[in-house]
Amino acid sequence: MFVRRLSVQRVDPEGGHHACPVRWIDNFAMRNFTNDAVFDDTLPAGDGLLEAGLRVPLDRLQPAMEDWFRRKGYLKPEERLEVLEQHSAGFGEERQG
Questions:
Q1: Please, are residues 86 and 94 in contact by the beta-carbon 8 Å criterion?
Q2: pLDDT at position 91 over 60
Q3: Is 13 domain-assigned?
Q4: How many C-beta atoms lie closer than 10 Å to residue 45's C-beta?
Q5: Nearby residues of 34 by Cβ (< 8 Å), 6 or more positions away
Q6: Most buried residue, 28, 31, 64, 82, by most Cβ within 10 Å?
Q7: Alpha carbon distance 52, 44 (integer Å)
Q8: Domains held by the chain: number
Q9: What is the residue-averaged pLDDT of the chain?
Q10: Which residue has the higher pLDDT, 77 or 2?
Q11: Hey, CA dihedral for 81, 90, 39, 34, is it positive or negative?
């Protein structure tokens, strides 16, 4: 639906990447929780996938999602979140982790 496709991965302490469950992403994407209109142009697309419009700034999205996931208890203190834009050649490809 949106122009950009983003990978949303939980990174464990050993550096392993794991697709965040779509229910986590969907929970963040509901505006009544984030209360930030800049993230309105997002749509959960599956485990580890978020579609977004061009006006969604990745430099704000990643820390906002990580903060929300920590407050919900989804991320452990030693884990981090990685949000990366997939390029059109990468659509449909899975990250090996």
A1: no
A2: no
A3: no
A4: 17
A5: 28, 64, 68
A6: 28
A7: 9
A8: 1
A9: 85
A10: 77
A11: negative
pLDDT at 6: 96
* Domain interval for residue 27: 20-82
| Structure tokens given for 65 | 């999602």
- Does 14 map to a domain? no
How confident is the model at residue 34, as a pLDDT?
58
Residue 30 lies in a domain: yes
Tokens 């989804």 found at: 74
- Residues 88 and 78: their CA atoms lie apart, in Å, by 32
Q: Would 51 be classed as within a structural domain?
A: yes
Element (H, E) at 53: none
Question: Which two tokens mark 13?
Answer: 């302490």
Which pLDDT score is estimated for 16? 98
For residues 27 and 73, give the distance between their C-alpha atoms in angstroms, rounded to a whole number: 12
Tokens encoding 56:
């969604």
